[in-house]
């Protein structure tokens, strides 16, 4: 599954929507100097600029206090030129991540992490949903992977990928199983999957024998090693899978594209064109 090509097409569509809307503003807040977060933020800003989104890159020192960060979030909530707002995670240990997320205006919460958006997602109602799980669903749709009635297995239960991916698959009428670090005999479960989504953060956690013949495999993992970035699934699994996403050029570019789409949704809501941000 070529996430790079699909993301490129989606970005073209977004550029047209942005020019139709006039101005779309996206703000990102990064606290500290984590190198991986710095790369993600730079990729997001480059992509935003290319589609005509005004992106504001706010960098705060690692010793920034929780109160200072909350003040920054409040300012961006009140800033009419900002449609979408994301605080890059992880935050330094001295900051209560959940409290900061709760402070984001749900209408601007393009990462879909505010409890209002997460609750709407659980209920199957329109909401901002994280860009990575939305990108996973978009890839399945693009490649005509049957999801309704399929056995779907999600490995990983993070708030940013695993849980929302499982919920989206459930709402698409898959029969969903969620695996995690305490799952016994992981391979026995993953071998049942017609659709296998892996978001663990560990190279080769899924080997060729853990994949059902003909399954659609979405590898969300991004692990930096000596040979560059690799996913969570052994590339040799491609021989058993019917479809598989490569790493890089699979889910990664889709995440960036769907984040831009989320900013456009936020802008449409704020201009009264849709009834709820995710709609
Ligand atoms: N491509 C993209 O755009 C994109 C976006 C986001 C994340 N990622 C990548 O996706 C991966 C996962 O990210 P994340 O934020 O979801 O990570 P995370 O918050 O660390 O969650 C990892 C999940 O994997 C589970 N796990 C750990 N070891 C396991 C094992 N041996 N067997 C089964 N499950 C296991 C954990 O279980 P417990 O809950 O029991 O601890 C946890 O639920 C990372 O490589 C990350 O870089 C990529």
Question: What's this entry about, in short?
Answer:
By secondary structure, this protein is of the alpha/beta class. It has nine helices and ten strands. The protein has helices at residues 3-21, 35-50, 66-78, 97-103, 115-123, 131-142, 162-171, 186-190, 251-270, and strands at 25-31, 54-60, 84-87, 151-155, 175-179, 195-198, 216-219, 223-225, 228-230, 243-244.
Fold and architecture overview:
It is a single chain. The chain is an alpha/beta fold and 279 residues long. The protein is built from 9 helices and 10 strands. It has helices at 3-21, 35-50, 66-78, 97-103, 115-123, 131-142, 162-171, 186-190, 251-270; strands at residues 25-31, 54-60, 84-87, 151-155, 175-179, 195-198, 216-219, 223-225, 228-230, 243-244. It has a 5-stranded parallel beta sheet. Strands 2-1-3 form a 3-stranded parallel beta sheet, with helices on both faces. Strand 4, helix 7 and strand 5 form a beta-alpha-beta unit. It is globular, with a radius of gyration of 18 Å. The chain starts with a helix and ends in a 9-residue tail after the last helix. 48% of the residues are buried. Residues 132, 155-158, 160-162, 179-183, 186, 199-202, 205, 220-223, 251-252, 255 line the site of NADP nicotinamide-adenine-dinucleotide phosphate.
